[in-house]
């Protein structure tokens, strides 16, 4: 099982995800796995855009690092007792999105199963390199390379700490440069064409997969949290697409329809089930609901629908367990399932520990049998049977219909080309 960590292609490290707990538990249930936790280049080092990066073959270097690690597994895992024909990639957020990108290579043979936690190939836009030119130029200016005859060479050879400071400066100004200044670009190779177009056409690898979400995907992304008005809401949503593609936010009928489907009613917002509490600004929960559905819940349903149409065995989950150490405004937040998958709980944690053991059993069952249905408490039905999720909670894990906020996510799907495609 090869883990690809998340972190918006900007941050994250392998040391935060020790696989020992997974390995120990897998041994105890008689389904032993080997975990491979990889590093890959991030931020400007791994996902620099712009025409200069394209000309120097420096697009998507983080994805190529991931690919190289998977090739290493194919060549060497047998030396550790592993089976190279039974490689399962699993990842969260941008790690899960990366898995979705690698699956766009329909002939890929580096893994035979995938688990995508909170992310897929259409979670965020992947655009031509030129769409990132504004952020490239900004980095060049902040780093002091603007007067260089070769700005790429200047960035490449400058002091490491100076470049780190420049990237941090860029990342700290989302109102100017967007909340995700580093992104995946269409390079004709590891990303052969637009991921949203390829996904819509069913151009994904025919391998079994699991795709899931946490309940409150959007809460930790709402910044600033003091969103009070409709204009504040649209400004926040548009911020994610600055210097990339923002045609959606200049389409008044679409924005009006979105606002109608996600009304300014705190009891309907995220974190869900928290009544009329607003926590911060009056529209914080509304913003969290829309953000979570645009980037995660719709994207999951979209990828699963393609899998079902292609006859691929696929399963869906909803993680809906609030962890007491979380703040109430976070709800069941993005990344919240990771400690459960990695067995970071102990028997003294009671029901949370039991839920962690249950989830790990499903994950390793999928790795062994290419089906989590091997575990029967309860049996996890394929998505194609009833379009249902397994909903993970400490009180009772059960199968549920995947129809929450279906009108909203269906509308997002209908207009998705407006924010995923270059205009």
UniProtKB/TrEMBL annotation:
<dbReference type="InterPro" id="IPR050309">
    <property type="entry name" value="Type-B_Carboxylest/Lipase"/>
</dbReference>
<dbReference type="InterPro" id="IPR019826">
    <property type="entry name" value="Carboxylesterase_B_AS"/>
</dbReference>
<comment type="similarity">
    <text>Belongs to the type-B carboxylesterase/lipase family.</text>
</comment>
<dbReference type="InterPro" id="IPR029058">
    <property type="entry name" value="AB_hydrolase_fold"/>
</dbReference>
<keyword id="KW-0378">Hydrolase</keyword>
<dbReference type="GO" id="GO:0016787">
    <property type="term" value="F:hydrolase activity"/>
</dbReference>
<dbReference type="Pfam" id="PF00135">
    <property type="entry name" value="COesterase"/>
</dbReference>
<feature type="domain" description="Carboxylesterase type B">
    <location>
        <begin position="1"/>
        <end position="390"/>
    </location>
</feature>
<protein>
    <recommendedName>
        <fullName>Carboxylic ester hydrolase</fullName>
        <ecNumber>3.1.1.-</ecNumber>
    </recommendedName>
</protein>
<dbReference type="InterPro" id="IPR002018">
    <property type="entry name" value="CarbesteraseB"/>
</dbReference>
């Amino acid at each position: 099982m090869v883990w690809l960590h998340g972190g918006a292609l900007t941050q994250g490290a392998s040391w935060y995800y020790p696989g020992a707990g997974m390995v120990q538990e897998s041994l105890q249930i008689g389904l032993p796995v080997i975990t491979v936790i990889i590093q890959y280049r991030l931020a400007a080092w791994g996902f620099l855009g712009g025409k200069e990066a394209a000309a120097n073959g420096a697009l998507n270097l983080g994805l190529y690092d991931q690919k190289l690690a998977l090739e290493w597994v194919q060549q060497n895992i047998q030396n550790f007792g592993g089976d190279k024909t039974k490689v399962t990639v699993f990842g969260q957020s941008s790690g899960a999105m990366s898995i979705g990108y690698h699956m766009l290579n329909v002939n890929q043979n580096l893994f035979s199963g995938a688990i995508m936690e909170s992310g897929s190939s259409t979670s965020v836009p992947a655009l031509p390199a030129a769409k990132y030119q504004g952020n490239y130029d900004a980095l060049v200016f902040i780093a002091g390379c603007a007067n260089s005859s070769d700005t790429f060479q200047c960035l490449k050879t400058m002091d490491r700490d100076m470049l780190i400071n420049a990237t941090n400066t860029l990342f700290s100004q989302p109102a100017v440069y967007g909340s995700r200044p580093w992104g995946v670009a269409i390079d004709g190779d590891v990303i052969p064409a637009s991921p949203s177009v390829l996904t819509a056409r069913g151009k994904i690898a025919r391998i079994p997969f699991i795709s899931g979400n946490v309940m409150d995907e959007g809460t930790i992304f709402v910044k600033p949290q003091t969103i009070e008005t409709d204009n504040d809401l649209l400004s926040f949503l548009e911020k994610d697409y600055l210097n990339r593609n923002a045609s959606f936010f200049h389409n008044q009928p679409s924005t009006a329809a979105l606002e109608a489907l996600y009304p300014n009613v705190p009891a309907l917002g995220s974190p869900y089930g928290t009544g009329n509490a607003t926590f911060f600004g009056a529209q914080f929960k509304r913003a969290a609901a829309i953000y979570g559905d645009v980037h995660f819940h719709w994207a999951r349903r979209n990828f699963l629908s393609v899998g079902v149409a292609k006859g691929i065995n696929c399963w869906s989950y909803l993680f809906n367990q609030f962890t007491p150490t979380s703040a109430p405004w976070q709800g069941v937040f993005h990344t919240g399932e990771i400690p459960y998958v990695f067995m970071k709980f102990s028997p003294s944690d009671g029901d949370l520990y039991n839920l962690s053991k249950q989830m790990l059993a499903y994950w390793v069952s999928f790795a062994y049998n290419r089906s989590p249905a091997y575990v029967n408490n309860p049996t996890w039905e394929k998505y194609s049977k009833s379009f249902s999720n397994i909903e993970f909670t400490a009180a009772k894990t059960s199968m549920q219909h995947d129809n929450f906020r279906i009108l909203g996510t269906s509308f997002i799907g209908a207009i998705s080309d407006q924010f995923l495609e270059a205009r």
